[in-house]
Amino acid sequence: MAALVLQPDGLAVRLNRRERLATVQRDFTIPWDHIIHAASSTDMWPQVRGWRWPGLGIPHVVLIGRMRFRGGRDFCALLGTKPGIVLECRDEPYDRLLATAPNAAQIVQRVTRGA
Predict the structure, then answer these.
(1) What is the distance, to the nearest Å, from the Cα of residue 94 to the centroid of all Cα atoms in its chain?
(2) What would you report as the CA-atom Rg of the chain, rounded to the nearest whole angstrom?
(3) The CATH fold of domain 3-113
(4) Residue 79: how many CB atoms within 10 A of its CB?
């Protein structure tokens, strides 16, 4: 599944080859100052909104791709019922990033700390 990597300049989203093919999306980095809010969640599926295009999805199993809805887009990388993170962004192609992440607590701490 997509890896969230903490970097000095921002949060890097790394996709493997299959994920890049399914989503038609390259790896991308969100600068720290573009992240408005970060929250961890134990149940990510109620956070999903809109229609998936492009991507791959089986409800409560896997969801990787762009979710389009009236007024915006989200990028989702969810695997099963694992805990994850919801990042609200500004000045980015996506309004939110939803991802299962073992390091969700570190990312929330980094965003709230603002350092």
Answers:
(1) 9
(2) 13
(3) PH-domain like (2.30.29)
(4) 16
Which sequence spans correspond to the domains of the chain? 3-113
Decide if pLDDT at 60 tops 70: yes
Give residue-wise pLDDT tens across range 69-93. Answer: 999 999 999 999 999 999 999 999 9
Cα(64)–Cα(53) distance, integer angstroms: 10
- What does the pLDDT average to over 21-43? 96
How is residue 111 written in tokens? 């965003």
Q: Identity (one letter) of the amino acid at 10?
A: G
- Closest by alpha carbon to 57, among 93, 49, 31? 49
Q: How far apart are CA 17 and CA 15, in angstroms?
A: 7
